[in-house]
Design a protein that fits this description.
3 helices
Amino acid sequence: MISHQAKAGFEFFVTNALKAALSSSSDDQVDVTPLEDSSEIKEQRLVILTVSSYLFRALTLMSFTLDAPTRRHLAAIHHSTPEAMSEADYLDVIGEVGNIFCGTLNRDLSHHFPYLGMSTPNVLERQCIDHLSELDASYIQHFRVVVNGSVTFHASLCVCDFADIDFQVDTTVTEESHGELELF
């Protein structure tokens, strides 16, 4: 079972991680809104990563379609232009955005849970979201993410618990992160 305050903590961490991952500059406005279900998610593909511990497995999914606004935004994140990027370049950037999203979530959760591991990104087709319920998850939450009022992504969090999960997060404190690499 995942407590209500743990669900609120997961949502807070996911919101902050999405803002960090999808900002191409400090001027970007990233708005994250929780959704009731996945029916609004229409993007063609998604990038999936997991954060795992002995107590839970959290799947993070970020849905995207490589339309013109998304290509411009991903090119800005990559400090490039849309014309200079190939399809493979866009997939590399979305994979890195997924890494930053999941890595930030991993870092924030590590303050509450030791021994976390993170997967590498995989790009899948959008229909995979429709099968999250088959994972017998205790918590699934979907989000709409709008960058600068013009680029929309969707994200999902699916937490499968192996024990009771309860932690409390101080939501009045936000830590700024811009995707710096951590060296081990």
